[in-house]
Design brief:
This protein is about 60% helix and about 10% strand. With about 120 residues, the protein is mostly helical.
């Protein structure tokens, strides 16, 4: 049986991974891997709408995955921690080895409409 602290830790890990599980949020995190970007630049990099990006940036900022910095009249966003980039790189390495299984997995299907970028 899990102790309360172990259960809380698992719940926090699951909550962290939910930040990565949405395709819009993940595309924003991917765009920010190279350098800080403002909302317009994130729109151009991801193809998502400005309102969608702003909404997801708020979530990512509140969860501590991105931070913002005001530069003149623009707000620039960047990954809050270099380990986020390392984690995304590690995911790419793991996915290279297990992609066929993940692709064929029927237990983790996208909910209808969840993969449309909006």
């Amino acid at each position: 049986m899990l102790l309360t602290s172990e259960k809380l830790e698992l719940e926090l890990k699951a909550k962290l991974f939910r930040g990565f599980s949405d395709t819009s949020r993940l595309s924003i995190l991917e765009a920010l891997r190279g350098k800080p970007l403002n909302v317009g630049e994130i729109v151009a990099a991801t193809g998502l709408s400005q309102s969608n990006i702003s909404n997801h940036l708020g979530c990512l900022r509140d969860c501590g995955l991105v931070i913002s910095e005001q530069r003149g009249r623009y707000t620039y966003y960047r990954l809050a921690d270099d380990r986020i980039d390392s984690l995304l790189r590690l995911v790419e390495e793991v996915l290279a080895d297990v992609a066929k299984g993940v692709y064929q997995c029927t237990r983790y299907e996208f909910p209808e409409g969840a993969n449309n970028g909006e």
